[in-house]
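Structure tokens please, single chain.
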Amino acid sequence: MLRYPGAFRDGSCLSPRLFLSQEIWRRTHLRHLWLRLGHALGVEARSPIVPLVVGSEAAAVAASARLLARGLHVPAIRPPTVPTGTSR
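Here you go.
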């Protein structure tokens, strides 16, 4: 027997895969947005997660704080998740 979380079992939440497979335009639009972001940042964007290496932990935390002040939740990724000096 397969077990599903309550939201999926009772239909109150659509599966993201089902949703994106039925509405191709959403996937196309998302891809356009991440490619546009990558271009604006000057990096190659291969997925909706676009890592931007800023170097130090302090720089990553400061960038995250500036983005949060503008309404964007972009957490800093720091060691030990990534090697020292490659915080994003």
